[in-house]
Amino acid sequence: MQSAWIIIKKELRSYVFSPLAFIFLTIFLAFQMGFTFILGRFYESNQASLDIFFSFQPWLYLFLIPAIGMRLWAEEKSAGTIETLATLPLGMPSIIAGKFLASWLFVLAALVLTFPIVITVFYLGSPDPGPMLSGYAMSWLMAGAFLAVACFTSALTRNQVISFVLSVIICFVFLLVGFGVFHDYLEFLPVGLLDFLSGLGFIPHFQKAVRGVIDLRDVVYFASVIVFFLILNAAVLEKKNES
Amino acid sequence: MITAAGLTKRFGSITAVNDVTFTAATGDVLGFLGPNGAGKSTTLRMLAGYLRPDAGTVTVDGAGMAGDPIAVKKKIGYMPETTPLYREMTAREYLSFIAEAHGLENAPRRVEEVIETANLGAIRHQLTGTISKGYRSRLNFAAAVIHDPPVLLLDEPTDGLDPNQKNEIRKLIKKLSRSKAIIVSTHILEEVEAMCSRIIIISEGRLVLDGTADDLRRSAGRPNAAVIGLKPQDRTAAEGVLGRSLADLGAGAPGFERFRLDTDERPASLGARLAAAGIACEEFCYYDAPLDDAFRRLTRTKE
């Protein structure tokens, strides 16, 4: 744990001092608000809730989270610092966890910075704080799943662009399989398999929380996706080490 | 003490390192030689715990890298050939990070000490992405020694340095060698003579020599040579005393001729024998057989 903390501090410092992080925050907040107020017609909806705000989030994450995660390993590889990192007495599991947690905290900071929308909603009406809280919590958890995918693809390559593209593709599949329209194209599949696939999608698991229900199964689902891709991440680093 | 036993590493169908075994004890400065691509860096990477060997083991003071990598890595200081650095950190921040990763209790003090040792004061607050090649090497060197490890692995530590900086690093290595086992890879032969107590040479992934610089010379099968200036009439007498024939090199100082003698006898004893026979030497030069000859013979690839 001590080792993971050392890595978290190092990674967070690189966010604080990198212009990229600020560009990311700006874009995230601008798009988040743009989607909600302009595309989502927040004022016209006459609802004192964050439903519209949350409904765009998976699509925003699709592009922004891979952008946060793409550098995590690819940069270490292209700069050669992975050699330093791997020969320090830290242990790979701690390093992998540290890198993931640091970026996840960064995403949390970005989410926290969307607080003006909460203030707005409270100013305009008397919303139910429950769905807001559960929505934010699950949104962060879902962001973790996106991020774990990005960690994995970043470990595959030393090229950040390739890492970005791969993780957008994988995340896009995770969004699509939970999306109703997509199922029309997969009707040839057995019903059981179709159900299984749609159960793998990010969006249905997220939407329940937006409506105010934190289902343990959704938490377990996102946690499993995170753990699964971090294990893949470790396996890729291990494999590259051997060949 | 660090031991490599039967280290082997394959990349696809290529065997980069093939059954390499050696030991470096405290006080040793082991010069690790070989042509480019012979497997030096791959071997050092396995010793440092970055690459996992396909066969063989690495042990430091009896503890195996495979069994307890974290404990073993604490005892190793490693300077990679590529001198990697985190560009967004200053030199001081980088060293602090390394010190912290090693769990040093007196981290801030150690950071200051190695900044002093490696002469990094001038760039202490500079981003590592902007420092020169010489500083990069020294910063990596400082990072390798910050936890005062009993084993030090340096992959071409003087590469890209100017002659003054090279000299400084060599002096540092000599100074540190008293309490450490040090392995230095290089392809500069003079450097090996200047600072190493032992040499190992690998070629095409195999260990081809483990010994001293003199062992390396002998392996070439080429003797050392003395050039002596004698009166022409003393030639036969000298050949009789030395038991070897002299090769004529032409006229030397007025009244003397220069001869070449191939021998492995040391100069002191040669001189003493000639003097005892009453033969006057006007000139006496002694040449060790060149190391690069021996190096070339040992590492010549079968093309």
What do you see in this structure?
The complex is a heterodimer of chains A (243) and B (303). Chain A has 15 helices and no strands. Chain A is mainly alpha-helical and 243 residues long. In chain A, helix 5 runs parallel beside helix 10 and helix 10 crosses helix 11. Chain A starts with a helix and ends with a helix. With 303 residues, chain B is α/β, with parallel strands linked by helices. In chain B, 35% of the residues lie in helices and 28% in strands. Chain B contains eleven helices and 14 strands. In chain B, a hairpin with a 2-residue loop joins strand 4 and strand 5. The longest helix of chain B has 14 residues. Chain B is elongated and about 75 Å long. The model of chain B has no long low-confidence stretch (mean pLDDT 88). Chains A and B meet through helix 1 and helix 7 of A and helix 2 and helix 3 of B.
Gist?
The complex is a heterodimer of chains A (243) and B (303). With 243 residues, chain A is mostly helical. Chain A is 82% helix and 0% strand.
Question: Which secondary structure elements does this structure contain, and how are they paired or packed?
Answer:
The complex is a heterodimer of chains A (243) and B (303).
Chain A: H1 2-16, H2 19-39, H3 42-45, H4 51-55, H5 57-69, H6 71-79, H7 81-87, H8 92-112, H9 115-124, H10 129-156, H11 160-176, H12 180-183, H13 191-199, H14 202-210, H15 216-242
Helix pairs in contact in A: 1-8, 2-5, 5-10, 5-11, 6-7, 6-10, 8-10, 10-11, 10-14, 10-15, 14-15
Chain B: E1 2-11, E2 14-24, E3 29-33, H1 40-48, E4 55-60, E5 63-64, H2 69-74, E6 76-79, H3 91-101, H4 107-117, H5 133-145, E7 151-155, H6 163-176, E8 181-185, H7 189-195, E9 198-203, E10 206-211, H8 213-219, E11 224-230, H9 235-242, E12 247-251, E13 257-263, H10 267-276, E14 283-287, H11 291-299
Parallel strand pairs in B: 3-8, 3-9, 6-7, 7-8
Antiparallel strand pairs in B: 1-2, 1-4, 4-5, 9-10, 11-13, 11-14, 12-13
Helix pairs in contact in B: 3-4, 8-11
